[in-house]
Amino acid sequence: MSAADAFPDRLSPARSPVAGMGQADGADELVRLRRLVAMCSHLSAAAAQQTDLEPVLRFLAANTRSSVAVLDRGLEVIATGGDADGVVARARHHSGTAGFKGVLTAAARNRRALRVPGRGRSGSVLVAPVSVGDEVAGYLVAVTDAVEGDAGGMGDDLMLLACEHAAMVCGVLLGREVVVTAAAGRARRELVEGLLLHRGQDDGEASRWAKHLGYDESRHHAVVSVALGTGGRAAPQPAVEGLLARLAGDAILATRTDEVVAIVPEHGGVSATERARRIATDCIAGLAKRGLTVAAIGIGNAYRPAADIASSYSEARRAAASGERMGTGRVVLFSELGIHRLLLRFPDVAELRAFADDVIGDLVREDEAAGTDYVATLSVYFEELGSPSRAAKRLHVHPNTVAYRLRRVEEITGLRLDLQRDRLMVEVAVEILEGLNAR
Hints:
The chain is an alpha+beta fold. It is built from 16 helices and ten strands.
């Protein structure tokens, strides 16, 4: 038997004798009390069943000759026993000068059901706070067209008691949903944590965790780690998480103490890392429009097996940490860090800068003073594997110009680029400056 079958909309005459109710000579008080007791008994039974709010509200509406709805604290309809818009509209109309919000506020403050007489002494509005724990989670609103004193064939006082009891049952049902939702949220967080921090455990276990999260091992995935910043412009976790959810609806999201993490799958022929880069870039741009920023965003390498996601997460974290040291709001791919994977792990950035200054500091100062391009020429020269002709092509200058600049580099620094030791020192110094000065 379903919950709906076990919870009828109306009480049967055998269980609640109502003969003569609502007639001009008035209903017998004992009959009304018996009816209230029967109603409360049915409502209480709902609290012990896995039922929704709608059967409770339909039952209350049918047995009190009223229109009923439950609103959340933002006055949005959660559930109704009939015409939701009609209930709210009529409640606002009946509330008159007191104002609908004023009635709700008074009910929440007193934690008791209230009745507002209708206009023209016809009908009334009844409001009962719906409490979940110590918090008022919403309001049960009942609107009746019955003449004052009749209140749906029950009388005003009994109608208030019926609404108050129904509100209590609604609170129990909503509280159950809150508990189930919270438990599901905790379970999901634990699954994500197990996936991100998987170390030396059975790969099959990681696959099972991943499957529960909707992870598809037939596709590559890359982890995005958004390092949250500090200060007045730092984006809060909900803002970052919400933006990532819109940018990548199929990503697995998680929030941790100082970061928001997204596990991004490849999609539509776009690799996981490239898609992650686009999402990260759009995320920073979207936050910037709201005057917000993050410390950095790191992206790990792409993997298929669920057991390897922990590696991608570790890489993303390291990339984000490197990005923080390079400048606020950078997107850094672990695969593109190169030698910075080692250099930017130094605890003292000043020591790195001092090394670079010792090696090529005179070149930097010469560039600043005379407008030369010695450091830029060295960077391109090293990227082109020591080829003056290819470097000249990229710099849009004659190869003789590149050769001249390289001779001047040796004269200014006192180092020789044809010696492996000196060449390595200069190349590392250039990498340090480019990494630390990048913005």
